[in-house]
């Protein structure tokens, strides 16, 4: 395998692993947001505050942020798996050309 091809495979592996790590971090952030929503919005006082508008929309903003982070984290995870799945295909293609 040539130098350029080795660099390409190495960069793809590093990028895939970084994306998987980012996906893991996103899941941790989602769990933290869920916990905060549960603590502040889903008890009696939080529910009443949300109904009368005393929370100024913060509970819904938190739920929206959780959904966005979860969605982005999943996309990054799928992309990381796809990149790591391409590495063996590229290596096989490179070896068959030699």
Task: Describe the protein's architecture and organization.
There is one protein chain. The protein is an all-alpha fold. The protein has one domain (3-89). Helices cover 89% and strands 0% of the residues. It has helices spanning 3-40, 44-52, 58-97. Helix 1 (3-40) runs antiparallel to helix 3. The chain is rod-shaped and about 70 Å long. The relative contact order is 0.19.
- In terms of per-residue confidence, which ranges show pLDDT below 50 for 5 or more consecutive residues? none
Instruction: Tell me the overall shape.
Output: rod-shaped
Strand % is under 5%
- Give Rg in angstroms: 21 Å
The count of domains is 1
| Structural class designation | mainly alpha
Main beta sheet strand tally, sense and closure: none
Number of strands: 0
For the termini, the CA-CA separation is 8 Å
Helix content: over 70%
Structure described in brief:
The protein has helices spanning 3-40, 44-52, 58-97. The chain is mostly helical and 98 residues long.
Features:
rod-shaped; single chain; 0% strand; 98 residues; mainly alpha
Summarize the topology.
Elements: H1 3-40, H2 44-52, H3 58-97
């Amino acid at each position: 395998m040539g130098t350029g091809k080795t660099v390409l495979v190495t960069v793809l592996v590093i990028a895939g692993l970084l994306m998987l790590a980012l996906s893991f971090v996103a899941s941790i952030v989602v769990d933290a947001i869920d916990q905060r929503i549960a603590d502040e919005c889903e008890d009696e006082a939080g529910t009443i505050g949300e109904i009368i508008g005393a929370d100024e929309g913060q509970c819904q903003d938190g739920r929206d942020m959780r959904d966005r982070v979860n969605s982005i984290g999943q996309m990054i995870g799928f992309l990381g798996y796809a990149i790591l799945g391409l590495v063996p295909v590229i290596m096989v293609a490179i070896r068959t050309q030699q």
